[in-house]
Amino acid sequence: MSELSSLYCKVKITKTQLEKFLSSAPEKAKLNDNWLNWWDSRKMYSKMSLTNELLHFYNDATNEEILNGWINYQQAMAFSDYNETSEEWHWGMMFFSENYLEMIPMFAFIISLEKYVSKSPENGAIVFPFFWGDDDVSAFIYFENGNAILSPKVHTLKNVDSKFVEQTKEFLNQKWEEFSKDMEMD
Q1: Helix, strand or coil, per DSSP, at residue 43
Q2: CB contact at 8 A, 151 and 141
């Protein structure tokens, strides 16, 4: 059985733009070459073709409801931290998913940020097995020229900028430490 991967997303975004994003309705993902190229680049058992029917999105009224749903799901150990000084939003989950079909709505959520983020080479999102010592990457999303792109070329952490990987691991270690303090140990 596969273990759940972690999700980490970091974007530069003004407080006003973050509030606009969170109050907006979720966008339906559109099947395009980016989705298809990414899907075709993934290895999975019983792989089927990606279709519009499989390209699910969240049905919540707002993006904030999606965010709150994950944060309230304690097993995910989700976090959302906004730094007003640096105008950075860190969002993710310690325990996200191991199933590509289950990941698709979250990727649509992250991709829909493209209209709201400030231009920065540091904007990105990654799904990888943080806890399990594996360097496989399920997905890496980067932002370029006003678009959020699911990279079909990133398969391992070695394919991701080492600074981004280091910052991701540092942030997830910090969040794990915070969550661990609140856990009851047997």
Answers
A1: coil
A2: yes
